[in-house]
Structure to design on (388 residues):
């Protein structure tokens, strides 16, 4: 420490002058200032230095808050995985369809430059495909009308016109189905025997149950005991009740009772199966029209959707079936089944082109999830994908 001393005799023997007193005060103040500076420097060295801000570390809020922190955006790769998996499953389901007329067109357009006889060959490929002659002629006419003579020699240009016109044909202008618009929502499912109608109903029921809806099935195909039993099996799998009547009884009364029960017990969705005997076409159509009339007695706004189930393995015959049903019933949607088992899946183009009815679902496998909501964009992209 600092100290200030003087001889004892001098301190006793003489009184300090005014100048000396001022000097002593100044020296004392200086000593105090120096001491304070030393103490401050020692304390400053003892404190840890503040680290530089890390740009990867989120800044703390300047005040206390109870707000939840904002969620980080999901990386694109993460959200794309389910979509990619779904696209791969669709590709697998359409493998045979892609090996049909699509593969023939691809082979025809495989050269860097197309020969002058392209148009006759292309027309032959389209007309022999299972898309129907009307749709084949339409696609062929679009190629001729859209492309110039020089562009007709460009394989990519021809392929692009066919692909984009196929997309346009499949995008029937129709609003999506809102199953919450009515309670109960009544879905009437029609189609000939053997097309996968009952299986489609069972898979739809399971999907809607998974979505949180309370579903009731109506076994309206009373003429086939096997159909009722199959529907009950699907009902057990999905955990939904099935309303059934006597074998050979009135299908309309079964569906009527199902709707009334749904109204009483608060069901969200009623899916009604129907008969599909086509050996007497007039009787079948008359029966379906009666079903529709009786449904309206139970609920004047029902059926809210009427879907026609078609078997893609039957090729162009499905177009004829669709015409017959549309003449008798107000069809609001198509379900095309068994696409995974046939090269005739191109018939979907003919169906939408000639009927102007939207495809609601497609079947591409045996699993419940293989009954897929139809997406024209994905379907065309996979159908006309030339990467594999």
């Amino acid at each position: 420490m600092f100290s200030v001393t003087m001889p004892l005799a001098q301190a006793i023997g003489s009184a300090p002058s005014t100048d000396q007193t001022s000097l002593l005060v100044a020296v004392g103040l200086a000593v105090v200032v120096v001491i304070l500076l030393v103490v401050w420097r020692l304390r400053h060295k003892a404190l840890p230095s503040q680290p530089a801000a890390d740009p990867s570390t989120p800044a703390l809020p300047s005040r206390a808050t109870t707000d939840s922190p904002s969620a980080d955006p999901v990386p694109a790769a993460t959200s794309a995985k389910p979509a990619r998996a779904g696209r791969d499953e669709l590709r697998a389901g359409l493998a045979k369809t892609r090996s049909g007329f699509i593969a023939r067109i691809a082979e025809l357009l495989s050269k860097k430059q197309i020969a002058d006889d392209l148009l006759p060959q292309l027309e032959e490929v389209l007309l022999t495909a299972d898309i129907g002659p009307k749709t084949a002629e339409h696609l062929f006419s679009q190629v001729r009308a859209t492309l110039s003579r020089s562009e007709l020699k460009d394989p990519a240009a021809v392929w692009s016109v066919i692909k984009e016109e196929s997309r346009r044909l499949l995008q029937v202008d129709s609003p999506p189905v809102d199953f919450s618009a009515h309670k109960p929502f009544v879905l009437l499912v029609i189609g000939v025997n053997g097309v996968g109608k009952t299986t489609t109903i069972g898979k739809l029921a399971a999907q809607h149950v998974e979505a949180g809806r309370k579903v009731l099935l109506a076994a309206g195909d009373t003429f086939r005991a096997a159909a009722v039993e199959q529907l009950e099996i699907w009902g057990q799998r999905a955990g939904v009740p099935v309303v059934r009547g006597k074998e050979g009884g009135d299908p309309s009364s079964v569906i009527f009772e199902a709707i009334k029960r749904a109204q009483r017990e608060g069901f969200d969705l009623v899916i009604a199966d129907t008969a599909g005997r086509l050996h007497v076409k007039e009787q079948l159509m008359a029966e379906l029209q009666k079903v529709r009339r009786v449904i309206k007695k139970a609920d004047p706004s029902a059926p809210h959707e009427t879907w026609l189930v078609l078997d893609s393995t039957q090729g162009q015959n499905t177009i004829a079936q669709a015409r017959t049903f549309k003449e008798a019933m107000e069809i609001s949607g198509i379900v095309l089944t068994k696409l995974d088992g046939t090269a005739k899946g191109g018939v979907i183009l003919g169906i939408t082109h000639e009927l102007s009815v939207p495809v609601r679902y497609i079947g591409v496998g045996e699993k419940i999830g293989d009954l897929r909501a139809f997406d024209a964009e994905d379907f065309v992209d996979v159908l006309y994908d030339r990467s594999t």
